[in-house]
Amino acid sequence: MFQNKHIVVGISGGIAAFKAAGLVSQLRQHGADVHCIMTEHAAKLVTPITFGELSGNDVIVDMFANISKWDVEHISLAQMADLFVIAPATANIIGKVANGIADDMLSTTIMATKAKVLFVPAMNTNMYENPIVQGNIEKLKTLGYFFMEPEIGHLACNTVGKGRFPELDMIMEEMEYLLSGNQLLQGKKVLVSAGGTKENIDPVRYIGNRSSGKMGYAVARAAAMEGANVTLVSCNRELPVPVGVHAIYVKNACDMEKVMNEFYEDCDVAIMAAAVSDYRPVTEAMKKIKKEDCETLTINLELNPDILMGLGKKKTHQFLVGFAAETNDVLNYGKRKVEKKNLDMLVANDVAMDGAGFNVSTNIASIIYKDLRVEQYPKMSKNDLGKIIVGKIAENLSKR
Ligand code: C5P
User: Other C-beta atoms within 10 Å of 290: how many?
Assistant: First the structure.
């Protein structure tokens, strides 16, 4: 994603300026051509040599220092940039840009670019929450600038609050989102389910499965990157919600069915990536079942609704995608499922294989289409597989 992309990293003078070094290093390791512009205050906190070494390019601080080059540097950087990221962004640089002030190299270059600009604010909580700063952020957002939310945590001023520089992975993901996609699903409403349902036995115990939700989240992320309006119905709360995705949390199959049905009518694509429990306890004990009360315990189970089958039955215009986790005879079971559940596409994987299935970050999958055509894919990350699945959905939608 970052290979050969021109990224301008603007470093303003917050104490988190040292963390931008890690960001620059990661971007370069991912193949980006990174150019750093520092404010004079930032250059007092971290030496420009650090950013020069890490980026492999000259670092610009002073508007008039590189006069020997005789090109208008802020204009050439502004024009070549695929993406700008201002990290950390102080209240000062946010205020300047919001008010059209261009009095140093960073503010001038931001003003001159037509590339997307992502601000990563990091500052003291009171400063961040100051209505003037918030007003500037809102103004810039409405003008099309992008902002990340600072994290809550320990701050340099030895307090705990909102204002912390986000984890690098989160910034990289946000940047990837802004750089990516050909808007293949622009304007489409995509509904995705993810994770393993939990069926309560009593207030402390449940019947669950090994699904981590990672595959569903990867598909949701890929769809959002392609411009879709994504609703994610998730059983997991631990995973970070991908940028541009609206998450709704559910616990069990019946709740998931309700939410899926609510959004199905109006969606263009529905993807059931969740591992739904086939059974649930017939009764849920209201109090914890005590071992003193029973020597042996029998839990009677009843069948859960097959959500996907229900969606297949009432399908009108929707493109319906199912998942199948099998331990043997994957393609034959998969083909039968496509027909039985009236699917347009099924992503089948053999969960017994190394690097496939539950709770790992990779998968080995086959895609089976409505006409029972099969495409097989090698082992890859769930994020990459998510992109392939979304690409194939878009390709098939465009043929309709
Ligand atoms: O029939 P099987 O459970 O193997 O099919 C898996 C597919 O069906 C997955 O897409 C899963 O999300 C969905 N499913 C469902 N409701 C169930 C069980 C599975 O929607 N009760």
Answer: 9
Residue 202 CA to residue 294 CA, distance in Å, equals 14
Tokens of 61: 């601080």
Count the residues in the chain.
Answer: 400
Atom from ligand 1 closest to the CA of residue 333: 4
Per annotation, catalytic residue among 157, 254, 267, 294: 157
Question: Which one of 219, 235, 308 would you pick to mutate in the ligand 1 pocket, going by the greatest count of ligand atoms within 8 A of its CB?
Answer: 308
At 132, the pLDDT band (50, 70, 90 cuts) reads very high
What is the pLDDT averaged over residues 34-63? 94
326 lines ligand 1 (CB under 6 A): no
Contact 278, 303 (CB under 8 A): yes
What ligand 1 atom has the least distance to the C-alpha of 278? 21
Strands 362-363 and 380-381, how do they pair? antiparallel
Q: What is this structure's pTM?
A: 0.75
Residue nearest to atom 13 of ligand 1 (CA): 308
pLDDT tens, 255-313? 999 999 999 999 999 999 999 999 999 999 999 999 887 889 999 999 999 999 999 99
Q: State residue 153 phi and psi, 5-degree precision.
A: 170, -165
C-beta separation of 84 from 117 below 8 A = yes
Comparing CA positions, the residue from 307, 290, 301 lying closest to residue 200 is 301
Q: Which two tokens stand for residue 112?
A: 């001159």
Distance 308 CA to ligand 1 centre (A): 6
Both tokens of 368, joined, read: 């089976």
Question: Is-cis flag, bond preceding 88, omega within 30?
Answer: yes
Beta bridge partners of 293: none
Contact 367, 347 (CB under 8 A): yes
